């Protein structure tokens, strides 16, 4: 166990320890988060399944699913990749392995505490900022600040002249997400009320997605795809177009989440226009990665990490097409608040972002542990279960959303919409359960990799040996 | 000295994020600050208390330290009849005041001046408690709603006011909204009719000043269920609400809303232990068709969470 290194001297901690700690924690939280998702989906399909206990009521479980996935799986997988990619790209060591281990430890403790309190109903009642402010302080000082320090100091101590695009993203996004979290929690910390509170809640929620989850996931692909294919990145300059347009455009459209609220009209219009402009970074990213694959497309079939990575990049296309246009007033009035948005959110988090991270976690754990994947068959099982499960979920929720939208504008009695949605609620549960099953297999596969995987000889990559006995 | 890209980069990131925060946070704050509170905004703020959710006065989020809303049909001091009945917000000694009272600027420039000058709002103290109401006054030819400190203006004490209202006219609105937040009702129900035809079904959208001093606003973003901003205007039956909360399938067979029978607690209004197992068994028979009528739902006790929740729905969501 890595806990023993918490009080070791920094020099005595093996390189990559914090990445391994973060990696396994992330997979664990992914299993927990998708398990809760499957449980919640079952309750929407069959409302009389498990009732009578406050602890297992939908309203107590829903936010635990959301935050377990965002703060547990996605963000910890980001931290894991930062712990091994940042030093690798700077041709140096991580600034402090010990800080990284403490960061992972505090992250797990803080998240467990926060989710337990949420589960008990102790909440601030603000979407995506549900954690009460004492836990928010743990998130800021135990999770985010150590992460920035480690990432930025590693970049500062690099032994390369330039800074690769991935590290630009890592450095900027860790900083920006901290600003976003502090500003987003200010209504609780400073008792800001009313529309200010409502707007800040969605300013935080939007920028958490826009300045943390999607750009860091993209940054990961800028590392994994060149590494796995052996091709250099198609264009570092297009990468910078992506980077700077994210900061300029993605940080502004928060109010498109509140189109029906009495916010200033200029703000909504501004947000709507800026929201379409996110297509610039989106197109830059997808084009850059797909052009990097030139001549190596066979790896999309042969190599499990590339398979995950490219699937994530391809899912970014519908994601950004939806995201850019659904927030304009012309479309927003139809889809807002419906299952369409739920489907879109899962396309971002479970589709694009998760697939890119799974690839990076597979790749990173094998590299750091110097162990070849225990079972390629199980990894393929994982890929297909997550992909098919996600597609069932996404398609069924999109249809359900269109039904809800039609019900909304044609004044259909609400209960008829509920009846019409029922089959899709069952499909959503089936899809979610498949994702959960795939992740259980993944956890087993990675555990067995750490224990019994074939040792990778020095100078070789684990993924090159995938088909060797 | 050699060109150092990270210096330029760091300045660029800081500058762009700063500009973006200027446009999306600072500029809107001018609009928000100038918003004058409406009657709805004052009512919500006064009935919710300082803050709903985790706070110093309510760390376990059970609805502690909240004001009590009462409907008065007679003057608590003189006993004179009040017609039509009025709403008053009773802050017992020690209960923290609403954000609109603690920070008058929250209610907008004109309303806060009226509340302070005409309504004598600043004379109230948390230590001795106070009774607030909503008055109506004229400034520059326009009518405004403002906060009245009824303890200072009419000499109503919190204890007298609660006594005059009796349990029947007492509404635990602040505690009820706390239940709405902790039970996660807002994961499915929204409080924001959208800019579609659903204004005709779910009622008028909220106005600019309807939120001043409210925390959290809990608009909701995911609508798996009807918008309930004006639900009490569509259905004001307490009996229907009780049945719907106990088991929504009693009144709407196709509903997917969870059962909230656990909000009834252990005992009913008469102090008898509620036998949930028996109820469930009988309900099962009813669903199977071997029983003609569903079992009766228990009467809730006066201090239960469900009572507060129904109070909030029927009082606040008009």
Shape of chain B: globular
Low-confidence stretches of chain B: none
**Strand adjacency order, main sheet of chain B:** 4-3-2-1-5
The largest β sheet of chain A comes out as:
none
Proportion in helices of chain A: over 70%
The main β sheet of chain B shows up as: 5 strands, antiparallel
Shape of chain A: globular
| Mean of all residue-level pLDDT scores of chain B | 94
Strand element count of chain A = 0
Largest interface: chains, residues each: A-B, 85 and 84 residues
Over all CA atoms, what is the radius of gyration of chain A?
Answer: 22 Å
Rounded radius of gyration of chain B (Å): 23 Å
Summarize the structure.
Chain A is mainly α.
Describe the structure.
- The complex is a heterodimer of chains A (469) and B (318).
- With 469 residues, chain A is an all-alpha fold.
- Chain A contains 15 helices and no strands.
- The two termini of chain A are 29 Å apart.
- Chain B is of the alpha+beta class.
- Chain B is 37% helix and 12% strand.
- In chain B, helix 7 (173-182) crosses helix 12.
- Chain B is globular and about 75 Å long.
Comma- or semicolon-separated keywords:
heterodimer; A: 469 residues; mainly alpha; B: 318 residues
Task: Describe how the helices and strands are arranged.
The complex is a heterodimer of chains A (469) and B (318).
Chain A: H1 17-45, H2 58-90, H3 97-119, H4 133-156, H5 165-190, H6 194-229, H7 236-250, H8 265-277, H9 279-292, H10 299-302, H11 304-326, H12 329-335, H13 339-369, H14 376-409, H15 414-452
Helix pairs in contact in A: 1-2, 1-3, 1-13, 1-15, 2-3, 2-4, 2-6, 2-13, 3-4, 4-5, 5-6, 6-7, 6-11, 6-13, 7-9, 9-11, 11-13, 13-14, 14-15
Chain B: H1 5-33, H2 39-48, E1 68-74, E2 81-91, H3 99-102, H4 109-117, E3 130-139, E4 142-149, H5 150-154, H6 158-165, E5 170-171, H7 173-182, H8 198-202, H9 231-234, H10 238-246, H11 276-288, H12 305-316
Antiparallel strand pairs in B: 1-2, 1-5, 2-3, 3-4
